[in-house]
Amino acid sequence: MVFGEMDGCDACNAVMEAQVICRHHAHEPRENQCSSVIVRHIKAPANLVWSLVRRFDQPQKYKPFVSRCVVQGDLKIGSVREVNVKTGLPATTSTERLELFDDDEHVLGIKILDGDHRLRNYSSVATVHPEIIDGRPGTLVIESFVVDVPEGNTKDDTCYFVRALINCNLNCLAEVSERMAASGQVEASNAV
Question: How far is residue 37's CA from residue 25's CA, in Å, rounded to a whole number?
Answer without folding.
Answer: 7
